[in-house]
Amino acid sequence: MFFSFRNGILSVAAAVFLFWIISSLVNWFFLDAVWFGTIEDCRLHQDGACWPFVGVRFSQFLYGFYPSAERWRVNLVLGIFFGAIGLLVYERMPYRSKIVIFMLCVFPLFAWFLLRGGVLWLADVPTGRWGGFMLTLVLASVSIVASLPLGILLALGRRANTLPFVKAFCVVFIEFWRGVPLITVLFATAFMLPLFMPASVNFDQLLRAMVGFILFSSAYMAEVVRGGLEGLDRGQYEASDALGMSYWQSRKRVILPQALKIMIPGILLTIIGLFKDTTLVLIIGLLDFLGMIQAGIADPRWGSPNVPFTGYAFAALVYFCFCYSMSVYARYIEKKYSEGRDRR
Amino acid sequence: MVSEKGETVVEISHLEKRFGSFTALRDVSLRVGKGERIVICGPSGSGKSTLIRCINRLEVPDKGRIVVDGVELTDDVKAIEGIRRNVGMVFQQFNLFPHLTVLENCTLAQIWVAKKSQAAADKTAEHYLERVHIPEQKHKYPGQLSGGQQQRVAIARALCMEPKVMLYDEPTSALDPEMIAEVLDVMVEFADTMTTVCVTHEMGFARKVADCMIFMDAGQIVEASDPKTFFTNPKSERTKLFLSQILEH
User: Fold this and answer.
1) Residue B201 resides in a domain
2) Do residue A342 and residue B157 have CB atoms under 8 angstroms apart?
3) Residue A336 domain-assigned (yes or no)
4) 3-state secondary structure chain B
5) What is the CATH number of the domain that holds B37?
6) Does residue B14 lie within any of the structural domains?
């Protein structure tokens, strides 16, 4: 660290800089922050965060404009969602595969009908009233879960040299969606799609955005998966062929398990990108987590210089927690799969 | 071709294969009878690997016919899968599945291709792992084994499908010298009871097991004869030169 004069200077400078950054963050976030009170207190102490703003707006950040009386439905869905994730992280969980199947097949339908309502005695809650963090989670989890299998199929299709039409379709599909900005996709699905549809077909705005996200991200996922497939030794394909395995048997038992392992970092990158990109639904008038925070900031009753900073800092904190925990879990999985297998 | 043993297992006629402008095989015909053991040798690039890779259609020939066990190889995927079940192959680079244990490597195709029960597959796998002398390694992953051990697992994996023909594609070329013997020993043991086509430069092995020696050069079969004639009195000058080059060491 201090071996040479130049390194010494650099180390000291870095330490001073870090100390300055951390101490000002701690001051702003905690020591100088206003923890309780009203907007009046925030206006008096502008050197720190204005947490009462987050406290008052918290339920809106979480639920958007979802009617208060019906918020138990969101709570129930989120409870099951996070509960299942908690159970699945624990690997020795009995019935693990059954939980996965339930979460992938039954839960999305259940969640949709429960959140959307309009069936049984449940009051109708149009998706226009969904918002906040719950909307972010719905968009992100649906797009992530749907784009991975689609991406795998597209990547396999792109490598199917014996099926030229399938291959051509996959190449065009992937290159098209990769060549178009996400904002354009959202605009197109939100405003242009209805122009081409008969007036009687009223496709839900949120569903349209979701389809846009899924198509867009599956193209990216496909390219990541293709990287993994191509990184795999040709001998693996030949060995499984030589044993008489069919195309799908070999993909399922031999090729994908290995390719997916190589691809974990790339998949994670795509997932995290997608999670953050969901914010773009803002431009088609859906207010996700960040959108709700921005709406809150714009409220003149909460006009104080530290309020916008507080809002964005809170958003950053929440996004960071989610992305970082995904990152940690992915690294854990990667490590687990490489143990004892690649040693030679 | 040379030996006239009973029924034909593999019949190759007028095979041609090109890679771009390079002709790997030109007008190659070969008959493998049941129980026959054929050793193919030749300089690199002579088409010997391509030839045996055509037998289970890892390479698709441009011209010619291949009939394996009475079934002609065409583009019919189901027929090819059926033929591959009956043709075991051992590769130069082992090509074990690194994400599966040794035992799982041996049971995978039995369970999913031959539709055997887990218990039956395990039993067969253990039997063959015993016969290649590595029953104690069955719960390890391929990456934890030596090259010689991996190649023996690969042999066991192919044998577990109880194939009618075994194809060996330079099985000892990627091995460290001290591991070659252990693999050849295993191959000799099985050659007695199994129709075998082997591409190799191990002439000691060839002398021991071959019924028929084939020498290939530039995509053609230059010489095919019984091992005794082949080693002592080869007809072609090309064969003589090749033999003198590899036997000198």
Assistant:
1) yes
2) no
3) no
4) CCCCCCCEEEEEEEEEEEECCEEEEEEEEEEEECCCEEEEECCCCCCHHHHHHHHCCCCCCCEEEEEECCEECCCCHHHHHHHHHHEEEECCCCCCCCCCCHHHHHHHHHHHCCCCCHHHHHHHHHHHHHHCCCHHHCCCCHHHCCHHHHHHHHHHHHHCCCCCEEEEECCCCCCCHHHHHHHHHHHHHHHCCCEEEEECCCHHHHHHHCCEEEEEECCEEEEEECHHHHHHCCCCHHHHHHHHHHHCC
5) 3.40.50.300
6) yes
Contact B99 A341 (CB under 8 A): yes
> What's the structural domain count of chain A?
1
| Residue-level pLDDT at B98 | 92
Residue B181 lies in a domain: yes
Whole-number mean pLDDT of chain A?
86
The CATH number of the domain holding residue A203 is 1.10.3720.10
Mean predicted confidence (pLDDT) in A318-334: 89
User: How many structural domains does chain B have?
Assistant: 1
Interface test with A, best of B54, B74, B80, B81 (most A CBs within 10 A): B81
Whether A67 maps to a domain, the answer reads: no
Asked if residue B109 belongs to a domain, the reply is no
- Contact across the interface for A239 and B143, Cβ inside 8 Å: no
pTM for the whole structure = 0.83
Q: Could you report the predicted ipTM of this complex, rounded to two decimals?
A: 0.91
